[in-house]
Amino acid sequence: MNFHTKEHGDAPQYPGKPEAIEDRLFINGEFVPSKAGKKFDVYNPATEKVSASVYEADADDVDLAVQAAKAAFPAWSELSALERGHYLERWADALEKSLPEISYLDAISMGKPAYPDPISALAPMIPMIVRFFASKALDVTGESSLNTANFINISLRQPYGVCGAITPWNAPVMFLVYKTAAALITGNTMVLKSSEKAPLSSLTAARCAQEAGIPKGVFNVVSGLGRPCGEAIARHMEIRKISFTGSTATGRAIQKISAESNLKSVTLELGGKSPLIIWDDADLAKAVPAAAMSILMNTGQVCNASTRIYIHSAVADHFLDSLQATMKLMGASGDPLTNGTMRGPQADKAQFERVLSYLDEARESAEVTVTLGGNKEEGRTGYFIQPTILTNVPEDSRLVKEEIFGPVLIVNTFSDEEDVLRKANDTEYGLYSSIFTRDISRALRAAKRLEAGTVAINCTSPTLAFDMPFGGWKGSGEGREFSRYATDYWTELKSVYMAL
Ligand code: NAD
Asked: Does ligand 1 lie within 6 Å of residue 168's CB atom?
C-alpha cells in the first residue's frame, strides 16, 4: 500500500498507531491527491498541534467521484443482494481488524479516548453496523396486491443510483458505516464527505473497503470543507439522494441547496436538547450514573445526550449531591491515547470556545447557579472543559434552548406532571427524551406525550438498539437510521400494474 508519511504530533506509543497516515482522497477504488493539490491541517485537540495534513477535495474532485460512482452503479445494482451482503461482511471483517487504527486516528483528530473504556467505546459498533446491514440483504423487497379486479399489482424498491453522504466529527466512522452500508446493500453507490475536523479514520474505512474487494467506484470518500466540498455534493445534479448528520443549521442549508438543484431526497440526522425527567419515586441509584454517563460520553459531544434534567423537587438535593460526586468520578479527563482515560478534550478550538461562551453566560447570570465545574480545566494544554452542572436556569435562556455540545448539564426542578411535560417539549428539537419513574402508567403517559423520535424509560441515551428506528422529530431531523425502516430511505418505490 502506498501511504504518504505524515507527522503524528506528540502522541505516545499506542498499539493502533499506523506507520503512516493516509492523506489522499479515495476515488474509484484508489487513493489519489486532490486535483488542485491543496491540503488542510487536522489538529490534535489534546496537544493543540497539527496531527496531519490531508488533501482537500473541491467541486472537481466531487464530480470525479460522482462519475466513478455512476460508472460503478449498473454492475453493483445488478448483483444479487446476497453478493452485496458478502462484500459488506468482508468490509466488516477488515474494519474490525482496523479498529485500533480507527480509534487512534479519531483520538489524534477529535480527542475521543482510543482505548476501549466504559463510556466512550463506540468503535466495536462499527463492524456490527455493517454486519447488520449485510443481514438486511434479502429484506429489501416491495409488496404485491390482488385488491384490484383482474390485476396483479406489485411495488418495487429500487436504488436511487449515486448517493451522497456528509458526516460529522463526533463519531466519524460510525456515521460513515450507517449511511454507506445502508446505501450499498440496497444497490446504490456512494460519494461520502467526512468532517474536516476528523477526516483521517474515514480514509482507513475506505482502505478497508478496498481490502474487502468492494468494486471500484462503489464507495468513494472525499475529505473537504463544508464549502466548497459539502455544497458540491448537495448541489450535484447526478446525486439523487443525500444523507447528512450534523448541525441543524447545516441540515437546513443542505435541504435548501438540494431544493435549488435537483430536489434530491434528503435524510437529516441533526442536533438535540434532550430532556430527562426524574420523578421522586425513581431509582436514583440507577438514574444518577445513567444521567452522568449520558452527558459525559464523548465529553458531551453526542447528538442525543440528555442535556436537560428535570428533577422532582422532593429529591432534588439528594440527587444533585449524588450527581456531583458521580460526575467528578466519571468525568476525570486525560490524554486520549493513555490507557484508562475516560474523557478527552472537546473536538477542536471552535467547539471549545463555543462551550466556553455558554459557560461565561452561566457564570455572569444573576439567576443561574453553577453547581459543578463551569469553566475550562485550567493550567493544561488541550481543549478540556470541566464537567458542569448548572441549576436554576431560566427556561427561556440560550442555555436551555440551544445545543451546547459539551459536558454541561442543565438541572431544573419540577413538581407537576403537566408542567414538566410541557417544559420537556418546549424545544425546537425532538431527538430523544427519557423518564425515570417506578409508576408504569406515568411512564407510558410520558412515552406518548414526549415529542421525540426516541423515548427511554428507566434508562437514557446512549441506549439504542439496531432494530429500533433512530431519528428526530421536529428540528432534529428527517428520516430514520437503524431498524428495518433504514433501508426504505435508500430506495425509490415504483408501482407496477399487470392487467390479467
Ligand atoms: P456541522 O453541521 O458543522 O458539520 C457536519 C458536516 O457538514 C461536516 O462534514 C461539514 O463539513 C459539513 N458542512 C458544513 N457546512 C456545509 C454546507 N454548507 N454544505 C454541505 N456540508 C456542509 O456539524 P458538526 O459540527 O460536524 O457536528 C456537530 C453537530 O452534529 C451537532 O449539532 C450534533 O448534534 C449534530 N449531530 C447529530 C447527530 C444525529 O444523529 N442526529 C449525530 C452526530 C452529530
From this structure: yes
